[in-house]
Automatic annotation (TrEMBL):
<dbReference type="InterPro" id="IPR000863">
    <property type="entry name" value="Sulfotransferase_dom"/>
</dbReference>
<protein>
    <recommendedName>
        <fullName>Sulfotransferase domain-containing protein</fullName>
    </recommendedName>
</protein>
<keyword id="KW-0732">Signal</keyword>
<dbReference type="GO" id="GO:0001517">
    <property type="term" value="F:N-acetylglucosamine 6-O-sulfotransferase activity"/>
</dbReference>
<dbReference type="GO" id="GO:0006790">
    <property type="term" value="P:sulfur compound metabolic process"/>
</dbReference>
<dbReference type="Pfam" id="PF00685">
    <property type="entry name" value="Sulfotransfer_1"/>
</dbReference>
<dbReference type="InterPro" id="IPR027417">
    <property type="entry name" value="P-loop_NTPase"/>
</dbReference>
<dbReference type="GO" id="GO:0006044">
    <property type="term" value="P:N-acetylglucosamine metabolic process"/>
</dbReference>
<feature type="domain" description="Sulfotransferase">
    <location>
        <begin position="100"/>
        <end position="370"/>
    </location>
</feature>
<dbReference type="InterPro" id="IPR051135">
    <property type="entry name" value="Gal/GlcNAc/GalNAc_ST"/>
</dbReference>
<feature type="signal peptide">
    <location>
        <begin position="1"/>
        <end position="26"/>
    </location>
</feature>
Length: 394
């Protein structure tokens, strides 16, 4: 049986290589990754179907090896910095991944920004690793330390102590579904999806490790930034509290949770983040950036290119394609120039009434001044009102 497994493993890899060579030869003009990927999945699926030839299900080792092959293919036109190659970036070869954490809060555009980073070929996405803490903000003890440890473990691809995280994820699979490259395998091999042995090895294959969290306040990120071995970069994503709170009104999990629906608490966090941003910008100028969701939405290509330069990532055509399809929704048909991403941050102008806007502005005076959000001062025509001005964290 052992020999049969070995033979199976070798043939599997051989067949995969042949398939990949076949695919890449056809790809010149008719580039269709999802079609090619489907073929690979079908091919894998054929091993899953119990049949009478008693071919064993691929082992964890087989799946890891298949993913390695997929990654080589996916990254074939990725431009690493001069002189570098994939092995320099993967933990499985004792390399050092490019690691990025997006720190934000609920309904502030972090899902969008997280998906932009995940559009980079070879990215492994640690989506919302603090989901199991519920609808709370982590600012200090008792949650701060275990939360920081969870983030560090994940960035090191070490799932061995993450019992609560995995337990929660098994019943809330969106913890993993955003991590598309992992989830593709989870759908084919559900028996391995939540297995720590599998996850440790799988994660270590990926050169880019991204993470986003909406529950950890910025100053707690310093202990992660400080870790030289991790070599992580942190991006703080901020949004106008009027936009954030308007958007949260429509989520059933937010109303009634003070950390989520109380303007004074939300804005106190923004003030604390502002002070932390100044500190981090001073102490880690090459590793920390702040970004406003409104600026990102109004100018996605320019801001993302600039952000990728800072992160050391190649602005790959897959990222461009992602932006094309997610920021240029032509709502009014072919001739319309309406772009969805340009109006998305400003829905609060039409959705909130005067007293709601006033209530937020009264509670957010300091936060709005810091981050460059202009108060309405009860203007009658909100449509033409520009809520943005400059801010300075230097
Ligand atoms: C790519 O392949 C998928 C799956 O076979 C198909 O649904 C899709 O229409 C194809 N896209 C293009 C642009 O050919
Ligand atoms: C495979 O085996 C099952 C059960 O032993 C049998 O019912 C089925 O007909 C077999 N299929 C083929 C294709 O031989
Ligand atoms: C994970 O997979 C390994 C190797 O197949 C196995 O030994 C281990 O029991 C699995 N762990 C769990 C929690 O299922
Ligand atoms: C504004 O909206 C709130 C919440 O929907 C509502 O309770 C309040 O009566 C409204 N105020 C005015 C002046 O319309
Ligand atoms: C703001 O405008 C509303 C509606 O026009 C009005 O009811 C309210 O009294 C105004 N508030 C202030 C402070 O001027």
């Amino acid at each position: 049986m052992v020999r049969r497994n070995e033979i199976f493993g070798i043939s599997l890899v051989a067949i995969l290589c042949l398939l990949l060579i076949g695919f890449s030869q056809k790809e010149n003009t008719n580039y269709n990754r999802s079609h090619r990927y489907q073929q690979l999945l079908d091919f894998e699926e054929s091993f899953k179907t119990p049949n009478n030839f008693t071919i064993p299900t691929p082992s964890i080792k087989d799946v890891i090896s298949m993913q390695g092959t997929l990654l080589l293919h996916e990254l074939q036109d990725y431009q690493f910095p001069e002189g570098d190659n994939l092995e320099d970036y993967t933990l499985s070869t004792n390399g050092r991944p490019l690691r990025t954490i997006i720190i934000s809060t609920w309904r502030s555009g972090s899902t969008f920004l997280g998906d932009v980073l995940n559009a980079v070929p070879g990215n492994y996405y640690h989506y919302e690793p603090l989901l199991h803490y519920g609808i709370i903000q982590i600012r200090s003890a008792p949650h701060a330390e275990p939360a920081q440890d969870t983030l560090k473990s994940l960035l090191n691809c070490d799932y061995s102590s993450l019992f609560n995280y995995l337990q929660y994820g098994m019943s809330h699979v969106y913890l993993f579904t955003h991590n598309t490259r992992l989830w593709n395998q989870c759908e084919v091999y559900p028996q391995y999806c939540w297995n720590q042995t599998f996850l440790n090895q799988f994660c270590k294959l990926f050169p880019f490790q991204s993470m986003k969290t909406v529950r950890l306040r910025l100053w707690l990120a310093e202990s992660i930034l400080k870790d030289k071995e991790l070599n992580v970069k942190v991006v703080l994503l901020v949004r106008d509290p009027r936009g954030t709170l308007q958007s949260r009104k429509h989520r059933d999990w937010c109303p009634g949770e003070p950390d989520c629906d109380q303007p004074n608490i939300v804005c106190a966090d923004m003030v604390s983040d502002f002070r932390a941003a100044i500190q981090l910008g001073k102490n880690y100028p090459d590793k920390f950036r702040a970004l406003r969701y409104e600026d990102l939405s109004l100018n996605p290509y320019e801001i993302i290119q600039d952000l990728f330069d800072f992160l050391g990532l190649h602005f790959h055509k897959d990222v461009e394609r992602f932006l094309d399809s997610h920021t240029r929704v032509n709502v009014g048909g072919v001739s319309s120039t309406f772009r969805d991403s340009k109006s998305a941050p400003f829905h609060w102008k039409t959705d909130l009434n005067h007293s709601e806007i006033q209530y937020i502005e009264e509670n957010c005076d300091e936060a709005m001044k810091m981050w460059g959000y202009v108060k309405t001062n009860n203007v009658s025509n909100l449509r033409d009102f520009n809520p943005l001005t400059g801010y300075n964290i230097e």
